[in-house]
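Aim 2 progress update. The chain analyzed this quarter is reproduced below.
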Amino acid sequence: MRASIFTFGCKQNYAESSAIARQLEQAGYQIVPFGEEADLVVINTCTVTETADRECRTVVRRTLRRSPDATIVVTGCYAQLQPEEIAAIEGVRLVVGNAEKHQLGLLVERARSAASPIVIRTEDLRSQDVPFTAAVFSEHDSHTRAFLKLQDGCDYSCSFCTIPHARGKSRSMPFEEIPQHVRRLVEAGYREIVLTGINLGEYRGSKGERLLDVLELLDSLEFECRYRLSSVEPNRMHPAIIEFIAQHPSICPHFHLPLQSGSPEILRQMRRRYKRELYSERVFAIKEQMPHACIGADVLTGFPGESERHFEETYRFIESLPLSYLHVFTYSERELTDAARRRDQVPLRVRKERTAALRALGQQKRELFAAENIGTRRNVLVEQFDPTRGGFVGYSENYCRVVVPNALPGALVDVEILGRDGELLSGRVLSSTGQSQYVGLPVLSLGG
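Predicted structure tokens:
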């Protein structure tokens, strides 16, 4: 039996898709690339985009054209929030919520013999104690960089966000289990491990351990790899974390701090847990201790009631900060959120105009940050050969994309940055720790 998986959304979803693939392999399925003929197709969905419904239907149609007899299973955040809507899509046989996706390998057989689509999900995850399930994901077959899920769920109540409904309460990997997962990744040849979570800054071990304790633990392991944080809320990017990262090269000087708005009034209406003054303090504290650090931000345009003045405040605030890049999203109404019930919705045309303006500003900041790295010495993890560039590409410790003429995938190389093409840097190799020799441990086995 052949199975394939199609994944929408964040790295967390991709990590969980890897865990699902492992479940299916244990159940006897052969995993094949999506698009090939398959007996079972799993679609792992996201709810952030306003086009979730259309995108899901499109993937279902593509599947049925290629594999008309396939059993189609839909899971993920969209499946958790709108299960009946998905079950009504022609061709879908099974809808599985987020709490149940980790038993998907055991559930698919029920769908094969059922006369009508089956929905299996916990109705209100916020009121349930859902156990944490580990997962890991790798973007490349070269065993260079892995994403390790440390935290899931969210206890915040931002007025525009459905994630607490879709993911449930915050929960974390047991602190004492972290070393064994990291060790297996290092033994498999990974030289960089990205720590991920829905709200990573809210990591909490069984004895009260926090994110700083995780970083101290990882640094003490002295494995031949480096660690990178994914997104952390600014109110959880404590000064002690910034200071620790500045003093320990094993943790990459790369920070992603969601901003959402630079308008104090809009931040209050969004129910964000910080003021823009705190955000600014965190950004400048990072740059003071690590001038070479990369700092990214999420921004949401067109929140209900966002006037031209509010948007101008956001634009000017971002313009004043030494940010390295922006992820800009256009607000869209979400059921179950307070913001969706407001009557002062911003016209879609205006939302998109503001998104375009901020993305242009973000591109300027990307290129400025790239230019600031020319003439510096950076540590680059080589990932793969890029035939269009005629060289090997990878990411520096401060998240610059770099191309070098001579290197091997899996090598950590010291590079002198000589120039750039847009935001892509180029340089020459000064020294190398050599190619990573992975032992062939399948990364999927780490996902449970």
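Confidence is low (pLDDT under 50) at residues 435-448. The two ends are 21 Å apart (CA to CA). These observations will guide the mutagenesis experiments scheduled for the next reporting period.
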